[in-house]
Amino acid sequence: MDLSAFPYLQGNYAPVAQECDWSESDLTLEGKVPDKLVGAFMRDGANAAFQPNYYVYPLDGDGMVHAIYFKDGHVEYKNRWVETNHLKTERKFGRTIYGSVGKLLPVPEDVIEAGGEPSPIRNTANTNVLYHGEKLLAMWEGGFPHLLNNDLSTVGLYDYEGALQPGDALTAHPKICPETGQLISCTQRWDSPNYWVQIFDKNAKHVRTIPVEFERKSIIHDLQITDNYIIIFYAPAFHSVEQAMKGEDPFHWEPERGSKVIVIPRDGRGKNMIFETDAFFSWHYCNGFEKGGKILVDYIWISSIPFTQAQGTGVEKQPRRMYRMTLDPKTKKVTQEQFSDVFCEFSRVDERRMGKEYRYGFAASSNRDWGDAHGYNCTGRYDFETGEVKLWEYGPDANAGEPVHVPNPDSDREEDGWIMCFVYNPEEGAYLSILSAGDFDDGPVAKVRIPTRVPNGFHANWMQGLTL
């Protein structure tokens, strides 16, 4: 592949070609791996297998999951492509067939006649990997999730026993209620402007659908829950499949429309509350909760849509900041407050506090300026009680991934857990960093060094109890 034309396929954004299995003897352990941990740390991400036709921002590469398994203080590593129909078809023909959401390609007739995947919209399965109801899923918000085995081998597309219908696209950003174990998710469709909240019980059985009607399909990437509500941001950010098929720029930002915040009752009863505010965009929430009759949401604020079809515009590098939004159901007033001026993304919390009042948020963060592509060389801890932000820097040229809070099984305190993320430092190579959630001054308590590179990716999770 010739990747020279794409900034987001350079350095540690570049794909890796090999699937590897590294035992503990192949890995190098530095410090002490917590022996209380039984499970797996997994992260999904884009890993282009064939020459892309378009790659302004890393949304389109084939999904690859990287995993480190923990048991009795021992570790091992695997990485595997998600074997989607689109990837299998391109492998069969040995060439690029499918385009991207920014520049779609018609599927050649000879591919369709040979039984290849007929949809021009590639299911990348590259955005998130989640374990719920004893189902391990690789997720992408434009289609069905893919069911995986514990060893990362692909079973196939998963429709939740028929709950998902052809054309439904399940979000890659569900939330799990810490009290009920419910998975709160949503579906959207390429052929409809509407949005459907989907709720599954702790065993991954479908509970209810809550429809939300819109006049126009907006790019809604994430959602947030509180005890009683589901919150989504309806930004004036739009995508046109028809323009993407013509090779035209399909992304549209219309700030004069402003942004809406939709608050949806979780029980499916009562009316949705709609709040209006100035236009902004957000990829990711940190957390949300109810307090004193108001709804508070912590999230990553971006001033406008952060992607386009043209290269070199820099829109994807615009500032991203931690914000707190307060919604007043009585007055319908929206209050926005910038919490920090640190460049950050991929915000996370102790999942046991999801939808609840909490103290700490964690995010991939940066304390430096980047050149052709942006990245994150720190893990940040955002203290919503004191206002303090602490950064642990892995090195000025390092790339640090989404930080995941892994709870201490013997404590319910946020600060007693660990923060895990994949790091690549050109001087050190690739490793899994394990920080103490309560101590950002002394650095990682352990590093699991990996002999092959782990490229920058998207979302990670801790899979409690999942072993080989």
Task: Please explain how this structure is put together.
It is built from 3 helices and 34 strands. The strands form 8 sheets. Strands 2, 29, 30, 31, 32 and 33 form a 6-stranded antiparallel β-sheet that branches. The chain has helices at residues 85-93, 109-113, 241-246, and strands at 21-22, 28-31, 39-46, 63-71, 74-81, 128-132, 135-139, 146-148, 154-157, 168-170, 175-176, 183-189, 195-200, 206-212, 224-225, 229-234, 237-239, 251-253, 259-265, 273-277, 285-291, 294-302, 320-328, 333-338, 343-348, 360-366, 378-383, 389-393, 399-400, 404-406, 418-425, 429-436, 446-450, 460-464. The protein has one domain (7-464): 6 Propeller (Neuraminidase). The protein has 468 residues and is mainly beta.
Chart the SSEs and their pairings.
Blueprint: E1 21-22, E2 28-31, E3 39-46, E4 63-71, E5 74-81, H1 85-93, H2 109-113, E6 128-132, E7 135-139, E8 146-148, E9 154-157, E10 168-170, E11 175-176, E12 183-189, E13 195-200, E14 206-212, E15 224-225, E16 229-234, E17 237-239, H3 241-246, E18 251-253, E19 259-265, E20 273-277, E21 285-291, E22 294-302, E23 320-328, E24 333-338, E25 343-348, E26 360-366, E27 378-383, E28 389-393, E29 399-400, E30 404-406, E31 418-425, E32 429-436, E33 446-450, E34 460-464
Antiparallel strand pairs: 1-5, 2-33, 3-4, 3-34, 4-5, 6-7, 7-8, 8-9, 10-12, 11-12, 12-13, 13-14, 15-16, 16-19, 17-18, 19-20, 21-22, 22-23, 23-24, 25-26, 26-27, 27-28, 29-31, 30-31, 31-32, 32-33
